[in-house]
Amino acid sequence: RLQLRSDLDKMNKEMTAVQECYLEVCREKDDLESTLRKTIEKEQQAQEKIKQELIQQLEKEWQSKLDQTIKALKKKTSDCCSQTDQVTAMDVIAKKEMAIMLEEQTRKIRQDLEQEKETAISGGLKKLEVELELKYCENIAKQVETAVQNARHRWLEEMPDLAEYKAHVRAEQKKWEEQQDITVARRISFAISEAKEKWKNELENMKKSGIPGKELEEKIHSLQRELELKNEEVPVVVRAELAKARSEWNKEKQEEIHKIQEQNEQDYRQFLDDHRNKINEVLAAAKEDFVKQKTELLLQKETELQTCLDQSRREWAAQEARRIQLEIYQYEEDILTVLEFLLKDTQKEHVSDSENKQLLELVSTCSSKWVSAQYFEKLKACIQKAFRDLLSLAIENANSEWEKRNMA
After folding, report:
1. How far apart are CA 249 and CA 243, in angstroms?
2. What is the pTM of this model?
3. Does the keyword Magnesium apply (predicted)?
4. Could you give the angle at the alpha carbon of 217 between the alpha carbons of 216 and 221, nearest 5°?
5. Do 95 and 113 touch, CB atoms closer than 8 A?
């Protein structure tokens, strides 16, 4: 019975540990999802910050390039003016017209540079944002899938050691977050450096190729139209693609998470069924063992009781035999004593009071329960009758002998 109770307590403790482990895994899964959401928010904030810094840096670079171009044009105009100080009034008019044309060209170049800068910034940032978002989503999907699979395997393997399992999950989560931060920072840095290098190359190409005014103006109008179209189309397309990709990714991840939850629940139910079967087997074995031990104990106790009864019966029989033998011996002694007393007083015809007292004292001294006053009276009467019969027979024999002698 104690062994059965111990086994039941052990099984109850194991069931409690399993339930606590399952609840702990669910809590760890919720914590992991919360951490992923927080990580996504942090990455979005980091992307916004990087985008703003990139915009500011590009604006500074384009402003510096624009200032350098204006200074170069002013220096070129100043050199032309210094060489034509001695010309005529027609030359002065031509110089004024040239200054106006130079100013107009400078304004157009500035507008062109501003538009190209806006186009480059908008297109580069959107392209960078799309690439980073897609790469980040792909990386998150792979890492979530890997983390969920690893968590499931660890849950199945390390379920009994709850404290060690918690520490292991926290270490893996911290390691995953650190690797994620390093990967995102590396990719963002690479994209920024690539964008910088690209825009530097384009700027150098623009400086090297001197584009005429009309072609530049046509290019400006073309770029403006292209920029307007892209400003209208690209954000919508990008947002739609991002929304679609995010929706598909969320749907896939939800399905995977649902499958994993179902698999975990199925494993947990299987685990409970196995433990329930094990408990039933242990209970059946314990019950069988208990019945067997009970039967053996009953047989042992019956044997011991029968042995005790036999021994008690033998002892009682021996005691009764000794007691009966003692009573027989005492009865014989009492009978002999009484007979001796009665034989002494048999010949007396009258019994005095003193003799009656002696008889009573003799009866009181007898230890046998069969000896009593009535018994003595009957025994005395029988002895007296026997003596009288003997006496009568002896007298008759004596008379007969005497008669025979007289006749002879």
Report:
1. 10
2. 0.29
3. no
4. 115
5. no
